[in-house]
Design brief:
heterodimer, A: about 675 residues, alpha+beta, 4 domains, 3-stranded mixed β-sheet, 12 strands, B: about 425 residues, alpha/beta, Rossmann fold, 6-stranded mixed β-sheet, 16 helices, 13 strands
Chain lengths: ~675, ~425
Amino acid sequence: MSDPHPLSSSTNGDRFRKQAIAGDLEAPVEHARQLAEKLGLEPYPVNYWIVDYDEMNELIAYGGFQTRYPHWRWGMTYDKQRKQGQYGGGKAFEIVNNDNPSHAFLQESNTVADQKAVITHVEAHADFFGNNDWFGLFTGGRADDSVDAAAMLERHARTIEEYMADPEIDRAEVEKWIDHTLTLEDNIDQHQVFSRRRESEDAPTGLDDDLGEKLDELGISAEVRGEVFDEEWIERIEGDEEAPSFPAEPERDLLAFVREHGKRYDEDAGKAVEMAEWQRDVLDMMRAEAYYFAAQKMTKIMNEGWAAYWESLMMTGEAFAGDDEFVDYADHMAKVLGSGGLNPYSLGKQLWEYVENTANRREVIEALLRVEGVSWRNLTDVVDFDDVRDRLEPPEALASISGDSLEDLAELPETWIDGEALDAARAGEIDVEAYPWKLLTYEGLARRHYSLVEPQFRGFLAEVSQDELERIGRYLFDDARYGSVEEALADLDYAAGWNRMYDVRESHNDVTFVDEFLTSEFVAENDYFAYEYSEASGGFHVSSTDAADVKKKLLLQFTNFGKPTIAVYDGNYGNANELLLGHQYNGVGLDMDAAGETLKRLFELWGRPVNLLTIATEVDDHDVEVARRRNREPDREERGKRLRYDGEELTVEDAPWEDVSHLAADDVDYDTKPEEWLA
Amino acid sequence: MGLREDLERFREVGEARREDLAEFISYGDLGSSRPDEVRIPVKIVDLPAFEYDRRDRGGVGQGDAEVGQPVGQPRPQPGDDGEESDPGDEGGDHEYYEMDPEEFAQELDEELGLDLDPKGKTVVEETEGPFTDMTRSGPDSTLDFERMFKEGLKRKLATDFDEEFLREVCKVSGITPREVFEWARGESLPVSFAWVEEAHAEVEDERGAWGSIEELEAEIDREPIQAKIRREGIGHVPFRREDERYRYPEIVEEREKNVVVVNIRDVSGSMREKKRELVERTFTPLDWYLTGKYDTAEFVYIAHDADAWQVSREEFFGIRSGGGTRISSAYELAATLLEEYPWSDWNRYVFAAGDSENSSNDTGERVIPLMEEIPANLHAYVETQPSGNAINATHAEELERHFGRDAEDVAIAYVNGAEDVTDAIYEILSTEGDSDE
């Protein structure tokens, strides 16, 4: 984690009453931080602010910040947010931004129980921001590793406001330019470390410029030029040149590419001219913001689930809410988790619990397999899982800690107990009833909250499959270390689940997270299904309830922000400085209308004609008619397509297959349609 | 702060891109609007981006499902950023531009060039208006001091005079107080004889300083009173009891502009889907328009075949019955229901729609007399025959023959396709005459 980096004071809640951490919340904030750290979280420092309903909606519209550049999109989000609040009861409890320190905004109208829940939730988010590697991609490129988000966004806001106020620059032009840029906000290389400038070694230099101009610069006299470097010579030299094609590798960071090589189309001149300084500057700013927000978009499920998991553990597990507040809290959770659909909170939380449970189970199974006479073949026969589970129950002294049970606590293994705190408790300096966790270490808390004995996961251990047993058992050495189950469990690492969670939270994003941890049990239990469009019926139908298919469709939604992958294939297409993009086709076609509209915007950033090669599936109307009568799907044919916009006209033409074959991926398939499905 | 501007810009952007109102009425999705809020789809307000084709993409849903079962309205997907995605809708995301009925009415006025001016009817209350009326007594707090000051100033202006000059006049040789007074009066100086006598006595010694008033006038400029005030300040303004006025609120008679709209629809067997839809397309904007125009709008929905019965708005456009058609049954019911809305207090609109089929002689013998008996701002009949005239469907024709094309309070409109809807609405709303009661 990086050092706290103070925000410049002007970005700091000037607009909000400096009512941060109102009296009631001072203690919960402090305790939540202590508890979070005991649990192994390493959150950025968090500043808490209390805001009213309107301010909350404003903050949400601005993506959790107080100042953003002027743009109508914020107005749109704000409008939507307000209306949801009015009609849908979509209540916002908090918003926290990814910054160091983080700023969390709590809604004034929350009950105390809500506020406490929100604080625990926020602490977990702040941990995720600080420790997930994908967030590190934005900060990693910088020496001091600081986020500096609020300051950056505010700087951008000021700069753009200045451009808009500049009498030399047309305000509407600035707004349009931002619009053009934003159409590409998801076309970045979000898996790379962010750097302000993308080095472009492969861009051709020197000779591609007009040779005549070069000669002018040499200051050769007109006579000499006429004799030696005549027009014919120039043409010959220029003609000889190999058409320089770049980039060498397809470039996914479209924003960087147009920033380096783009021009703007000048209506009056009727040709491409260099971008103005402010235009490049706007491009740079929008690109930096796109990279900054990318990590949040890539880890929505993980991050919300992470926060929901720790919130629940602190609130319910450690009674962070008082008894009277608990009902409110339960109500709040029911609202958040039960909002239906595939909500990121409940999907994420359940996946995290799965990570924890499987790691814990693996630890237990490994221990059991090391008992003499137990092997993966016979484990389920010789081991009594009920007995094992009873042994996994935390000792009474740990499960219920009170002022009277301090001495029992002292009997427990040292690693579980925070000795200093215990002494303090004995001296009456710690309110043991309210904060029992203060007496425990990370290991102690892991023991106390061991997942496999939680009521909802009681069956999890026994459900271990033979496959899994084999997988673990086959590679296990030293497999006769213990004489009995009791002995084996005595050495058990109860923090295995949490440790695994911390590893996962560091390295995964939503795609890898869902791919690795979404199980068929999960899909079946929650009644998930995949659906597809039927050409024959003209509507959407359930295509599969199979976990693998559901996962396929889910991954499609998470991969690359749920958007198709587009890359620059040539910045000098046809040796005419045209731009050629390629859509890396994974079986799911482009929305052609949207692609055409986007190309029109891109033209403004390139200044010269823009092209896009893609693959589209086509069905013959006659085939659809036939298929409909026979109750089956018509055959679909994949064809190459080239979209082109030259500043005036958008054209879509068939492209020969050899021009697009390199774009088609044959190792992915997102289609879940069964052979016969509309019987 | 900035967000307010952003919101305004969004509205401007949305305004520019929302569907043309006339087009919306004829072809748009009226169903997503509510009676108090008209929602007009805005064509792709958000910026374009490279995106998957929705059909190709498919999705994930939750619920008890069988393979092959159609999926109605799948929920938003987790990757979708909470944005509504409706796979059944090829056009993709629709943002909505929302307007309240007032705005709708205003826009429609502009679009169709209407100028329906709603009339106030019932005197609902006598409210206290602004404190603009005056009385001579009242509590101190309502004393109109400003007025009193002005009156005092006026009085001062009227009574003040150039004392110095008049004193000089008294010094003219041989002049008597009477002569001074007479001269002053001749000059309209508001001076009393007593004052002149006093001043005359005071300058006894200096008398003879001037040979004549003419000489004096040539020597010394008289100073107008305004100049004096400007020079010396206002000084003392005489407040008089008679200038005291106390403000008290004006009594404003408020006439509420209220309207009752009776929607009548033929629901008999011949009114098939297409006809029903056209009636809905015509009636719904009329309802919105009148809601927007009047302070209070009440709606009565009557469905009829051979008999008539009152229904709720939700049911109104959906009902279909089997029986024959007797339009007068609806007007009989309307007459009864309208008793609750006395013509003296309510603006009334009676809109009926159907395919002009009626039982024999019902139109001439029953409907027309009823229409004439029910006082209303406007009676309208909307005929819808998308597939051409049926031979015995002559209700509209008979009405037109009887009332004439230019009747002030009867409108007949024909809607045979979506493209006729706005014309019909114009025909109806521009018919209402100015005559009232």
